[in-house]
Amino acid sequence: MMGRAHLIISTGVTLSVMGMSGVQVTLPAAAVALVSSLLPDIDEPNSLLVRKAIPAEILRLLQLAMIGAALFVLFYGRDYAPWNFALAGLIGVVSFLPSRTLRHVVMFLIGLGLIAFGQGFSPWNLIAGSVLIVASLVTHRGFTHTIYAACGWCALLYFASQGKEGAESLWFAGGLSYSIHLLSDALTNRGIRPLPPLKWRIKLKIMSTGSRWGRTVENICILLTLVLLWYVFMASG
Question: What is the total count of domains within the chain?
Answer without folding.
Answer: 1
